[in-house]
Amino acid sequence: MPIIQERDQEKVRGRFASLLKPVTVVNFTQKFECDFCRETRQLAEEVSALSDKIAVEVYDFTDDRDMVEKYKIDKIPATVVAGEKDYGIRFYGIPSGYEFVSLLEAIEMVSRGDSGLHQESRDLLAQLKEPLHLQVFVTPT
Amino acid sequence: MESDLVTADMVEATEFPQLATRYDLRGVPRTVANDRPVVDGAMPEQYFLEEILKSVG
């Protein structure tokens, strides 16, 4: 059973037609998959199948410690959306419902290499001198 | 994307209840910047940025 319904697959495929640079969706799960780990992995695999610009990588949170370190993953299920480089974009938990749109937007943003922010915001962020870790809490919709 | 110093996580609150408790989550979306809750709900980009930047020196 696909998680992304057939008619939605078509819509997403259409959106992804405008992707530019390659994107990698990196999924972290484990052998005995946690709550929503299986669904999150399946979602990552299904999304990546909708464009040849998107590659999917699946790692084990327990066994693949080098990748866990590389992406600084501290809980699962985790999904990284990376492009030419790792921009620090993470989804913890399943990106379903409205967050599925956030996932698509993250993929498009990374592929374009453009945050879409106003110039004033870009200027402010460029002046940052210390790390800024944002966590946006959401619930399934 | 505009700074290598910024990392941004979506956290699905029901899957990580310990974090929801830690940040005293009552409603969503709630944005936590460097471990401090700073923004509740959605707000225009300019104000959102002002609030989150208060968390850094």
Task: Assess the beta-strand content of chain A as a share of residues.
Answer: 15-25%
Largest interface: A-B, 42 and 36 residues
Span from first to last CA of chain B?
20 Å
Mean pLDDT of chain B: 95
> Runs of chain B with pLDDT <50, length 5+?
none
| Biggest sheet descriptor of chain A | 4 strands, mixed
Summed over residues and divided by their number, the pLDDT of chain A gives a mean of 96
Q: Please tally the helical runs of chain B, counting DSSP H or I stretches of 4 or more residues.
A: 2
* Number of distinct beta strands of chain A: 5
Q: What Rg of chain B, in angstroms, do the CA atoms define? A: 12 Å
* Unreliable stretches of chain A: none
Describe the structure in your own words.
The complex is a heterodimer of chains A (141) and B (57). Chain A has 141 residues and is α+β, with helices and mostly antiparallel strands. Chain A contains five helices and five strands. Chain A has a four-stranded mixed sheet with strand order 2-1-3-4. In chain A, 32% of the residues are buried. The model of chain A has no long low-confidence stretch (mean pLDDT 96). Chain B has helices at 17-22, 45-53, and strands at residues 6-12, 30-33, 36-40. The two termini of chain B are 20 Å apart. The model of chain B has no long low-confidence stretch (mean pLDDT 95). Chain A binds chain B through residues 35-36, 72, 75, 77, 87-95, 99, 102, 109-110, 113-115, 117-118, 120-122, 124-126, 128-140, and chain B through 1-16, 19-20, 23, 25, 28-35, 45-46, 49, 52-53, 55-57. Strand 5 (132-138) of chain A pairs antiparallel with strand 2 (30-33) of chain B, so a sheet runs across the interface.
